[in-house]
Design goal:
Radius of gyration: 15 Å
CATH architecture: 3-Layer(aba) Sandwich
Number of strands: 7
Largest sheet: 5 strands, parallel
Shape: globular
Helix content: 25-40%
CATH topology: Rossmann fold
Number of domains: 1
CATH superfamily: Alpha/Beta hydrolase fold, catalytic domain
Strand content: 15-25%
Order of helices and strands: EEEHEHHEHHEHE
Distance between the termini: 32 Å
């Protein structure tokens, strides 16, 4: 299996062990890593059977002012930005230990400005790849309801009704 981590994260695969398909023919990714996983799947020259997208970064419904604010916050204080990001990922639960790396402005711009387009998913499906999407409906990072509506036409969508960005149940 090939797994792509989220923005500024390393080793976040452990949060999704309950859902991951352990197969040489599975490509998976979390948040920003879901974008990377989709790009991998669409460009793969080797066999891929399943594409798993965990809380895929979905900001195409976000206002441009929100995106500018995110970039400005990151550029002015990347360490505090990552801390706030981690809080948002776990909200409303307490933050758990994470392996962090310093993301780049270019990566954050890619996350915020990536648009999931019909033709990308149609091309993936056309290669015979099954797409699975997992969304936490209490996600404080992405617009999970809009993501659900978009992906329903292309993927098996699993909703964790009280799940956060890491798909952990919240009460």
């Amino acid at each position: 299996m090939t797994f792509y981590s989220g923005f500024s994260l390393l080793n976040d695969q452990r949060f999704f062990e309950a859902y991951l398909r352990e197969s040489d023919y599975t490509v998976a990714g979390f948040s920003y890593g879901a974008i990377k996983a989709a790009r991998h799947a669409v460009n793969a020259t080797s066999r891929v059977d399943t594409l798993q997208l965990f809380s895929p970064a979905f900001f195409q419904t976000a206002k441009s002012s929100f995106k500018r604010l995110q970039l400005a916050g990151f550029m002015s204080d990347p360490i505090n930005y990552r801390k706030r990001f981690a809080h948002g990922c776990f909200a409303p639960r307490e933050v758990q230990p994470l392996d962090l790396r310093m993301g780049t402005v270019d990566e954050l711009e890619d996350v915020l400005n990536f648009v999931w387009e019909d033709h990308l998913l149609e091309k993936i499906l056309g290669k015979g790849i099954h797409i699975e999407v997992y969304l936490g409906m209490k996600d404080h990072i992405i617009d999970a309801a809009a993501a659900r509506e978009f992906f329903l036409g292309y993927a098996t969508v699993t909703l964790i009704r009280t799940g956060n960005h890491f798909l952990q149940e919240c009460t």
